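Pasting as-is:
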Amino acid sequence: MGTAAAVFAGSIQVAPKSVGTGILNIAMQSPNPMLAADIINQLMDEYAGYTRELKKRTQDSSLAFIEDRLATYGRELDSVQDQLLRYSQQNNVIDISKQSSVYFDNISSADKAINEQQLQLNTADFIESYLRDKKNTYSPVLVPSSLGLNDATLNGLVNEYNRLQIERQSMLDGSIPPGNPVIIELNQQVEKLRVSLMENLINIKKSYLKTISSLRDNSGQSQGQLQSLPYKEKGFMDIKRQVDNKQILYNIMLQKREETALSRASTIENSQIIERALPSSTPIKPRKRSIQIMAILIGLAVPALFVFAGEVLNDKVSTRFDVEKITSAPILGEVGHSYSDHTLVVNKTTRSMVAEQFRIIRSNLQYIVGKSDKTAILVTSSFSGEGKSFISTNVGAVMALAGKKTIILELDIRKPKVLSGLDMQKGPGITNFLIGKGDLKDLVRPVPDHENLFVLGCGPVPPNPSELLLSPKVDEMFAWVKENFDVVMVDTAPVGMVSDAQTLSKYVDCTLYLVRQGHTFKKQVTLIDEFYKDNKLPSVSIIINDVKMKPGYGYYGYGRYGYGYGYGYGSYYEEEHPPKNFAEKVIEKADPRNWFGKK
């Protein structure tokens, strides 16, 4: 029997129809729908009867408690009423509250009058101190006449005094000298009025002091009378308070008894059946649609889980946020992935997205180097393959396009790539000069088809590059290029692998540190933060290189420009298409429109 009841109870479902309405839906899943409907209907009936009986039992308990308290309060009330009656007869007490009220009113009135008289006295003191101050004898600031002193004589004297002061000041403002007889006469009249005013104020103050003294005497008398009330009257008040409290409690219990009795007589159940349970002939499970939805959700969740795991396990820089959360060094700009076959993508006519990003970097560099006419810029990275030569070449090109005479120093003398990227033949260069076998003006070569852009190649790769960069000839080389060129781009070896960049850092004004998307490890960004905070390299700023469209981000690079790839938005940039893969080439060949020369 108990097992069957537990099974039924587990299959019954109770849930609110909607939040805040108090309406409940009761359902039961069973192979026999008629049995389930009968069980639910009987359950609702039993619940209604149970709540009704529970209410009556609660109200019976309340009535028993109230009757008990009424008997107790009745006995206590009779006792204190008898005590009050005996006390009144023995001490001949009639009405104390009226007597006390009169005394309190007298004290309050006296205090109020004293405060008013004290305010008048303070005002008189203020005017008197103003008149006694010799600095105010002929002051253009007038004596205030409406400060609450209701004395006609005083106000008349003040008005006359102020009139004479105004008249005297007007004559002085009219260029009449102070020694003029008229001014002297006015001075005498002012002094006479000032003396009269002070005498009048002394008399007024005496009157106020006398009034205050009289009021204080009256207040003291009332206080004495109040304090002299017999203790028997205070005892009367205490007993009267007990009578009032007991009467209030007794009345409350009477009211509660009537309310509870009325509530018990009209007791109804807490719940109301809105609709009886009816059996359903439609099967409710297994539900085909739920299984399909679950399969779809699992199909979406599993790939999402793999993508999320890939992001978590990825230890390389993927977004600009990866850099910003590790280091506080400023990010100078971002350079997208270039599909061009040439390293130098910047010239007078190019309007590609990558070229425009280099122009943005040129603009941002003004905030790093200021308005200096001569600038030396060091380009480095954490390790090889992050695009130092590409950035050095194109930043130098945009500086040259701005009218700056620019030279690129191929100082990555371990793996030089600048000349090969420019499609220029290798030849004598920096290493030749450092060992004393060349003149700088003969080694500098102009970049073909690019005005104001020159390059000083590496020369033969030496066996001891670190020691060679410590030669005094390096000082001479930098002094010469800074004198003959406006901008010096220094393409050097990765600072995370060798010390060449730190050796050359003393010759430059700022450092461009490269981070390549999908190539630079996140832990290597901490090295940038160390160089930035410890000032091991001058004015470090970061360029994020090789930024590609990343699924899920929706913008070119890191979403800082909001142009997508810049295509289809009014042709702000020249379109740059990636090379076609094998599938795209097959589809293009299979398109019949291409067979007849049409696109």
